[in-house]
Design brief:
Distance between the termini of chain A: 59 Å
Strand order of the largest sheet of chain A: 3-4-2-1-5-6-7-13-8
CATH topology of chain A: Stationary-phase Survival Protein Sure Homolog, Chain: A
CATH class of chain A: Alpha Beta
Oligomer: homodimer
Largest interface: A-B, 77 and 77 residues
Structural class of chain A: alpha/beta
CATH architecture of chain A: 3-Layer(aba) Sandwich
Order of helices and strands of chain A: EHEEEHEHEHEEEEEEHEH
Number of helices of chain A: 6
Number of domains of chain A: 1
Strand content of chain A: 25-35%
Largest sheet of chain A: 9 strands, mixed
C-alpha cells in the first residue's frame, strides 16, 4: 500500500479568488493533497472572529487531482472550523493561511484574519503557518513569498510544531529576500488611526487608517526590524496568552 | 484645585443596551468619571476584529453628571479605538469591558469581543479588565459579578498593571461566589461544533454550537476548574504572543 499523501488545508482572509492564495496553492502542490477552503469575499482584519448569529454555507468551486477548492460564507476562523469539522474527513497534517496581501508583523497578529486562521488550526492540533507579503496590491509579486513559504511549510510538515504553537511568516516586498530570521513580535501600535469624513447627511464618519509606530525600533529580535533590513521574519506564536510571571505577583494581592 | 477624577472607559460586545453593561456602569459610578462607548448591537464572538472596509459612526445616547453614554457602529475593538482617538480627550485611567452575558474562560479569550476590547485598551497603555458572567440570559443576575468586578477595577485603578498585560475575570453563576482565584488560561477546545440545518433551497447550512472539552481538567491553576468549584477566575493575559522558548529552538533549524 502506498503511504497516504499529507493533507494540507489552505485558507486566507482575502478570499478564495485572491492572487495570494492561488499562488500559494500552486507552489504547495508538490507537498501533498490540497484542500482550499477560504472566504467567499475579503474578510481582512477579522482576527479570530466567529459567526454564531447565522448559519454558514460553503460551495465547491473546483476539484482536480490533488486539489479541491471551496468557498465559504464565514470568517477565516469559521473556514477552518467548518472545513475540519465537516469537509476534510481527517485532521489535516498542515494548515497554511495566506499568502496575505499586506504584512502581519508586530501587533498586526492580533487583528489579522490570516493569523486568526493559523491560530485556529493550532487549536485543532494541526501544525499551522500564516504567510504574509508586505504588499497590499492585488497583483503583487508572490515569487519570493512562495519560495520561503514553501520552505517553511515543508519543514513544518517534516518536523511538526510544539502543541499550542503556530508560525507567523512575513516577507518583505523585494525581488530578492536575504533569508529568514527567527524573531519575536515587536512592540508597537497604530497612531492617528482615523480619517475624518462625512455622511451625505453631514454626520461625522471615521475610516480606519493610521501609522504604525514601532515602540522599540532597535531591538535585535524585532520582526519589524528584520523586515526593514530585507529579511523575512518568522515568529512562533502561542495560543496560551497567560502572563505567568505576573500571575505569581497578582496572587499576593488578590484572592 | 481639586484632583481630576479617574476617567473610566466602559465597553462590551453585547451592545450598549445589554443588562450587563448597564449594571457594570451603575456599580462603577463611585470610582470615577465614566464614558460608555459600546456597539450599537450585539457583536459577540468578534475577537479583535476591526472595520476597515467602511467608515464608523457613533451617537450620543445620554449625558449626565459623571456619565456619558455613546453607541457605535463598529466592533468592540473599533469602539475602543474610536473612543480613545476621537472622544475621550485624554487617555482613560482604566478600561472595563463587560459584563459579558456568558463565560470567557480558557480558549474563549481567543474569540471573545469582550476580551478583544480589553486587549485593545492594553495596547493603548490603559490598564484594562474584561468581566464575564457564566450566564447567557438577557436578565441574568449580575450582583456577584458587579461586586467582584468593582473590587478588581478598584485595585487596578490603584496599582495599575504591567505594560502589555490585561485581566480576564470570569464569575460563576452562583448567588454567593467563594472568592477570586488567580488562574491561568486552561487548555481546551470546542468539539462537535456545528448543527446541521438546511436553506429553503435544500442547501446544507451549519450553525456554530459545540461542547467545550477541557484538555486538562485537574490542573490546579486551571480557570475552568476554579469556576467549577465556585470561585471567580482572574487570568492575567499578555498582548505579546511570541513563544520565546520555541524561538531559540527554531533558530537551530531556520535561517
Amino acid at each position: 500500500m502506498p503511504e497516504k499523501k499529507p493533507l494540507i488545508l489552505i485558507t486566507n482572509d482575502d478570499g478564495y479568488q485572491a492572487k495570494g492564495i492561488k499562488e500559494l496553492t500552486a507552489c504547495l502542490r508538490d507537498l501533498g493533497e490540497l484542500i482550499v477552503f477560504a472566504p467567499d469575499k475579503a474578510r481582512s482584519g477579522m482576527s479570530s472572529a466567529i459567526t454564531s448569529s447565522m448559519p454558514l454555507m460553503y460551495s465547491l468551486i473546483r476539484k482536480e487531482e490533488g486539489l479541491t477548492v471551496y468557498s465559504c460564507t464565514g470568517t477565516p476562523v469559521d473556514c477552518v472550523k467548518l472545513a475540519v469539522n465537516e469537509v476534510t474527513g481527517r485532521r489535516p497534517d498542515l494548515l497554511v493561511s495566506g499568502i496575505n496581501h499586506g504584512g502581519n508583523m508586530s501587533i498586526a497578529v492580533n487583528y489579522s484574519g490570516t493569523m486568526g486562521a493559523a491560530a485556529e488550526g493550532c487549536i485543532f492540533g494541526i501544525p499551522s503557518l500564516g504567510v504574509s507579503l508586505l504588499d497590499f496590491l492585488a497583483d503583487a509579486d508572490f515569487t519570493e513569498s512562495c519560495r520561503l513559504g514553501h520552505a517553511v511549510a515543508r519543514q513544518v510538515l517534516r518536523d511538526g510544531l510544539p502543541d499550542g504553537t503556530y508560525l507567523n511568516l512575513n516577507v518583505p516586498k523585494l525581488p530578492h529576500v536575504k533569508g529568514i530570521k527567527v524573531c519575536r513580535q515587536s512592540r508597537g501600535r497604530w497612531e492617528h488611526e482615523y480619517m475624518h469624513t462625512e455622511t451625505p447627511h453631514d454626520q461625522p464618519a471615521f475610516w480606519l487608517t493610521g501609522d504604525f509606530k514601532d515602540a522599540e525600533p532597535v531591538h535585535p529580535d524585532n520582526d519589524t526590524l528584520a523586515l526593514h533590513y530585507g529579511y523575512a521574519s518568522l515568529v512562533p506564536c502561542k495560543i496560551d496568552v497567560t502572563d505567568y510571571g505576573f500571575m505569581q505577583q497578582l496572587r499576593l494581592t488578590v484572592g
